[in-house]
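Supplementary material to the annual report.
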Amino acid sequence: AQSVSQHNHHVILSEAASLELGCNYSYGGTVNLFWYVQYPGQHLQLLLKYFSGDPLVKGIKGFEAEFIKSKFSFNLRKPSVQWSDTAEYFCAVNPSGSARQLTFGSGTQLTVLP
Amino acid sequence: GAGVSQTPSNKVTEKGKYVELRCDPISGHTALYWYRQSLGQGPEFLIYFQGTGAADDSGLPNDRFFAVRPEGSVSTLKIQRTERGDSAVYLCASSPTRTATNTEAFFGQGTRLTVV
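Predicted assembly:
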């Protein structure tokens, strides 16, 4: 069975600060990796995804994530956050080469202070 | 519509009652997923459809929960004899690809179910 751990439950930053949100997964095979974001009152939206290839993945709104296979990690980064990045962020995985359901982490609430 | 549509957006029901939650996926999407999200948690998988059939229903918590997708598009999640512990946001997602292909899922706004 797969599992996903997001160690930071709530992160508070000031605008222009750099962001790194941790995500570790457990699975006995190769995986697809995702970061989803949920802005207040909105539905879950895909920020970025990794299927294969370059382990450094760039997504929307200046976000990026790096897949480190040896550490089973897929941390999300942004060099300079904005107030509009305030949202909940979810890391998710599913088995590589499949359309199977996602296993999500418990989420990280990011609050950016203006 | 352009996205995944879920109705109703909010549902309040009394303990013991039956409820149906509807999901209208993006047109042409073959895969459909139901998740449940409790406060402070990530979405938890319930059931996954490919076309009309349930490819994986291992996430349904007990036999009070059932879902159908009779024509391979709209899906209904049915909960019998609701309990207060069923209160959560029920999320639906769809994706355009078939079983053995990497894909991304597109989520609806969810139905917030409250059992009183």
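DSSP finds no helices and twelve strands in chain A.
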